[in-house]
Amino acid sequence: VVGHPVRHEYTVIGRKVNLAARLMMHYPGVVSCDSETCYYSKLPAFYFNELPKKAMKGVKNPGVLYQFMANKQQITVGKAPMSVEREEGYPLLGREKEIEVYSSMLKGFLEARAAGHKNYNNVLIYEGPIGYGKSRLLAEVVYRTAKEGVRVISFELAKTDIKQSNYALQTLLAIVMSVQNCKSYAERERVLLSKILDPKMRQNLCLLNDILLVKFPVSKDVSLMDSQTKNKKMRNYFLELFCKFAEDEPCVYVLDQAHFVDRSSLTFLLYSGFAFRPFEECYTFVEESQSDPNLVADKSLMMNLYSALALWYA
């Protein structure tokens, strides 16, 4: 401790401090870290980009270094793959009951669809403590569902996503519309135009501008709407899109870390459940795991989500 008691300065030394100083010097303007910090952040891998190796004074072997991408929404649209994938040769053990429940529900859904029914839908929620193996279970679900020839739309949320308005809805919509791998707004627009062929729906493509980061011309009707009317119109339009693609092929939606759904997306889910009951031919699989209560926006709100989903797909 040095300096006047009112202005004490504390000096810390060690390998980590030296590494941090070298990172700031050799990678200016970015938030950088080593592999250990990346691991203990508990964030999905898509939050980090590997940095090129550089020779640094006093640091012989720093290992792999990463740049932290603070805002995914500015980097990609709908890019939120699941961090756990099924590994060949490593079968899932001790989860026969959970898999049996899911397999039974999926079989019932496919049989009802083949028979021409449009009102057989359901939601399955897994809940358990950290380390219980929920993500591994979801990976098995994705694998088995794909083997049945059913389209799987899966993504994983992270702790920071709860602070990004409409992030969960944006990700879901982007994957449904197959624009998650597009690198520019122009490319996303081309894909959307190839997917949406109905003239009436094309008139309102501008409603996707904010959610999917595109630049379709704003129609006259939309330009004259007030904020409340426009938001309602957007919700209805998103529902039309989901329902349309649900009619074309059966879908299973897999959501890992569902307790990190942001409030705006949660509001849309509740609105959808009580107002429209969409996805008449979709089966939804939602995973929720135990988390720090401080990270969840509102515990009662999450319970309302589950109630809405049960009604939505009942």
UniProtKB/TrEMBL annotation:
One of its GO terms (cellular component) is cytoplasm. It comes from the Eukaryota. The keyword Lyase applies. InterPro entries: AAA_16, Nucleotide_cyclase, P-loop_NTPase. Keywords: ATP-binding, Lyase, Nucleotide-binding. GO terms for molecular function: adenylate cyclase activity; ATP binding. Residues 92-269 form the Orc1-like AAA ATPase domain. The keyword RNA-binding does not apply. This is Soluble adenylyl cyclase variant.
